[in-house]
Amino acid sequence: MTDIKINPFNITKAVDYSDEEINNYWVDISGGNGFIDMVKPLSPMPVFLLGGKGSGKTHIMRYFSYNLQKIRHKEDLLQQISNDRYIGIYLRCSGLNSSRFKGGIYRQGAWKNIFSYYIELWFTQLLVNIVFDLNDTHKNVLLKYENSICKKLYALFDRDVSKEFDTLKSFSDFLQKRQKQVDYDVNNSVITGQDINEADILVTPGRLIFGFPGILESVIKEFKGIQFIYLVDEFENLEEYQQRYINTLIRERESPVSFRVGVRWYGIKTWNTFSGNEDLKVGSEIEKYVIDIFLRNNNSEFEKYAKEICLSRLKQSGFSLSKLGSSKNSLSSYFEEFDLDKFFKKLNGKEEKHSKSYLFKLEESLKKQKAAHIESIINNLKYDKNPLLERTNVMIFYREWKAGADLRKASETIKSDCLLYVSDSSNKNLAHYKVLDKFKYDLIDQLHREARETLSYSGIDKIIKMSAGIPRFFLMMLKHIYRWSIYAEENPFSGGVISEKSQMNGLGDASKWFLEDARAAGIDGKLMSTSISKIGQYMQEIRFSNIPSESSLSSFSIKMIDIDEGIEKTLSYLEQYSYLIKVNPTREKNSITQRVTYQINGLLSPHWELPIYRRGILHLTSDEVAVIFKNCTELEYNSVKNLRLATYNAPFRNLTTPTLF
Amino acid sequence: MTSASKDYTVFYKKKFANTRELKADKSYDIFVSGYNDSRRVRDVFHDIDAQAKHWIMFSEYHYTSNEAPILNSENEKIFSFEENLSESAVIRKYFEECGIDFASLNAICIDITGFIRPHLVFLVRYLAVLAVKEVDFIYSDPIKYVKGEQTDFSFDYTHVRQIDGCQGLHNPETTNDYLLIGAGYDHLRIMDVSKNKNNTKKVQLFGFPSLQPDMYQENVLKAYKASEETVSKIEEILVDEDNTIFAPANDPFVTAQVIRDFIIRQNTKKPITNMYFCPLSTKAQTLGIALYYISECLNEPTSIIFPICSRYSKETTEGLAKIWRYTVEFNNI
What are B258-316's pLDDT values in tens digits? Predict the structure, then answer.
């Protein structure tokens, strides 16, 4: 297998797949309640599939399209579609280039009329193309219906168009001609600065979109009882009034037509319709799913799903792997995992100024405070046999320092406790037990950082966890990891093991990509970027302080009353772009205060050296919320931050000016 | 989309070592330039021989009234425009306000160096609509970009849209759509436009030979940062014959020719369903894309699209290496 050069995870976006690949790579959630149950192609109820970038919307939408039905049903397509009882008419809103239908010298109402007409022509052409394709596949079997179809089509138009077409081909040409006329008029208007002639609109909104499928269903016997599903993807590309128009079509849909809408989570600009200015009603008029939340809430299912995706990619690329679950060849065995003993050996091989920098730093701090018996204190805290215990000694010492204890005595107690812990690590009364029970992984990460080593996030299970329910993130991480592993000549998935280093390098690249990629546009986007950087750095500084208040700090909470309109918008952006993951609401102990809790997306964890698992929660004060999630000066931000950090870092007193708020 | 015999490389271009040479070579009825802080833009404006000289102040540079250029003679004029006007509105307004019938002039010169790209594209489209016969376009090569590949060009991105006047007659069939990006240093904008047309096959047009020897490498380094959006099926290869084409960074005519050849080649393999161009490389290549568009893409499923930003750097380069003059014969293009 050494001749394999193509990265099996190279394609991370469904748009880059051919129809065949979409079909081949299709993986659903196991055990029912998966994507098929979400889309429900036989249900007349329209469905909105929301999701972050890379959540798999396009893959799902395309899977139900006619092109994929054709691949699945190689034999007797027409009969098989009749058996399917639906035809998926897939369209990407980006192809409409719809931003041209706005602005300039025209009234909003005029643009709405032009756009709705354009949609009639566009959707109907897509369906005509499917009918042509079916007809070609079945040697003109549908031509016998042409005459009846055309006669019924004439009635859908507001003007007599009987001389314009008499076959499906001429109907298609007619639609294309009318569409080009609209394109030409819109284009010309910006050159001349003149108005568009609206009188050329030949059909009432909805007449073709609902009428043409209705005619096909009633005339073509093989179409009897089937549903025509418009799979409207990339809905976020539409302007607000355009979404409102499509919402209106959805609300006023007529059988045999239904809709499935794929849209970025942040891409819904309105739920409103032009029908009495009312919103679409979730439950009674539409169903709505947020795919990444759905996958995150089904943790174990997502884990299986992600592994299936990985195996499917490897299989399609020619790798030979035994079925997942076989202990010898399970996916986990291809990824090196963190080994504490190995890490200790690595530390031992380093110069003490790096491997024991925490002792040097402590010594410096004590000197600054002109403390007595420094040498003796440091010697008491040393424990060369086990860096983790030595680091624990230092953390406990900082706690004693903050508590105002006699430092020399404290160091002596720590020394004797350490030895007791070595002889009996199950003694729950020892400070070492308590600290390690809660902060073991934080201290290991501290040791990494202090020794200038990259933090470890290795192992397939951690990688899946970091992807936060978003398949594209998972594939992106694997793509970069594989690339680094090939570079290191590790022979990944072909007998070799992917080293921790390759995994770290790959995750670092994926993390950087995500941070840059998920930028929102405009002023809001700028505030969002600043906010996520601030909260990430904030938690990083707290986590690597002398005595972090919380263990496994990757989450923070905000009091509901601190969330004004601006902060709400920023948080909502951050959540919808998947920077933040909302955690179930909490209530402060012994308090009626309601808080909302967020976790930093695991893919961003390497960027700020945060853990991917969630344990402690940083409860932000009102001042902190304001300086992190609103525009403020650096002085204001630092002032608030320093106030907080002063309680976590020696000498544990605030040396800065009081908060400005 | 393309006839068999067209050859853009026959159009005339000339290189000048400095503004003195340019001045001595030809005089003009009118000279138009987009104002910014670049020395290469100001020197050309100052030295060129023209009966009328017009500065266009693009609001995207955000000059305050105190920063307006100083006029040296009565034949110089400034045209300013309010913010948030589209490129078509700005260019139409300029022609209305200047009141000059360009079609009746014999010698027109436009320095495109300081132009904002969508405005430049629409200007070319508009000049063709106005039936102007011939225009000399000037483009000055810089010696270097101020911060090499770290130079910032555009800020405050808002959205991607078609450039006015270059909105094609598109197909609902989108299975073989292409996006050809004139790939410059501004990798964030490459990402923005690629994401907007994410279902297209991406082809990058690189400036090679580049304006200066080191610029090609800088350019590719920057484009690589956007490779997650632009390269898909090819294993880690950014510069590859399937997804990259090359044209000299300072030659619009070869640029137009190279694009033309590429499109003929692709259409032979499999008909392109929709074509999108995005000019993010040099202004000379932007001119090339615009010329190809007005010559062969009107009434086709082809658009020029652009990631719109509300702010641009007033100065991104240092020095003036050479001045190029491209003579566009609109009636022959």
Answer: 999 999 999 999 999 999 999 999 999 999 999 999 999 998 999 999 999 988 888 77
pLDDT of residue A661 exceeding 60: no
Give the H or E element holding residue A257: strand A257-264
d(CA A618, CA B149): 39
Does the beta-carbon distance from A94 to B196 stay under 8 Å? yes
Q: What is the pLDDT of residues B186-241, one digit of tens each?
A: 888 998 999 889 889 899 998 888 777 777 777 777 777 777 777 765 455 556 66
Longest Cα–Cα distance of chain A, Å, equals 104
**Token digits of residue A456:** 């470890």
Do A511 and A607 meet the contact criterion of CB atoms below 8 Å apart? yes
- Bridge-partner residues for B78, per DSSP? B55
B198/A523 touch (CB, cutoff 8 Å), yes or no: no
Q: What is the gyration radius of the CA atoms in chain A, in angstroms?
A: 31
Find, among B250, B236, B238, B240, the residue nearest to B321 by Cα.
Answer: B250
Per the document, the length of chain B is 333
For the ranges A2-6, A43-47, A268-272, the lowest mean pLDDT is seen at: A2-6
How many Å from the N-terminal Cα to the C-terminal Cα in chain B? Answer: 15
Contacting residues of A for B88, CB less than 8 Å apart: 190-191, 193
Task: Please report, for chain A, how many H helices and E strands are present, in that order.
Answer: 27, 9
Q: What is the β-pairing status of strands B154-162 and B302-312?
A: antiparallel
pLDDT band per the 50, 70, 90 thresholds, residue B148 = low
Instruction: Name which of A479, A229, A233, A478 is nearest B199 in CA terms.
Output: A233
DSSP 3-state of B34: strand
Q: Is the pTM of this model over 0.90?
A: no
User: Could you tell me which chain B residue has the CA closest to the CA of A487?
Assistant: B236
d(CA A241, CA A253): 18
What residue ranges in B38-80 does DSSP mark as E strands?
50-57, 76-80
**What is the Cα–Cα distance from B288 to B276, expressed in whole angstroms?**
14
Within 286-325 of B, beta carbons closer than 8 Å to A belong to 299, 303, 305
| Half-sphere exposure (Cβ direction) of B249: Cα atoms closer than 13 Å | 25
Three-state SS string across A273-313, please?
Answer: CCCCCCECCECCCEEEEEHHHHHHHCHHHHHHHHHHHHHHH
Contact B232 A10 (CB under 8 A): yes
The token pair that represents A293 in the structure block: 């939340």
pLDDT at A217: 96
A400-421: average pLDDT:
96
User: For residue B115, which of B156, B87, B143 has the smallest C-alpha distance?
Assistant: B87
Tokens of B213: 């020897």
In this structure, are residues B162 and B135 in contact, taking their beta carbons and an 8 Å threshold?
Answer: no
Q: CA geometry: angle at A546 spanning A540 and A551, to 5°?
A: 60
- Element containing residue B109 per DSSP (H, E): strand B108-111
> Which structure tokens are listed for A576?
């919808």
**B298 touches B141 (CB < 8 A):** no
C-alpha closest to that of A557 among A607, A649, A549, A524: A549
Give the pLDDT band of residue A507 (cuts 50, 70, 90): very high
More confident residue, B225 or A160: A160
Q: Could B164 and A190 be called an inter-chain contact, meaning their C-beta atoms sit closer than 8 Å? A: yes
pLDDT digits (tens, 9 = 90+) for B55-93: 999 999 999 988 889 898 999 999 999 988 999 999 999
Q: How far apart are CA A468 and CA A472, in angstroms?
A: 10
Extended strands (E) in B190-301: 201-207, 244-247, 275-279
Which helix (H) or strand (E) segment is B259 a member of? helix B252-269
Q: Is the pLDDT of residue A3 over 70?
A: no
CA distance B158 to A156: 40
CA dist A200 and A61 (Å) reads: 34
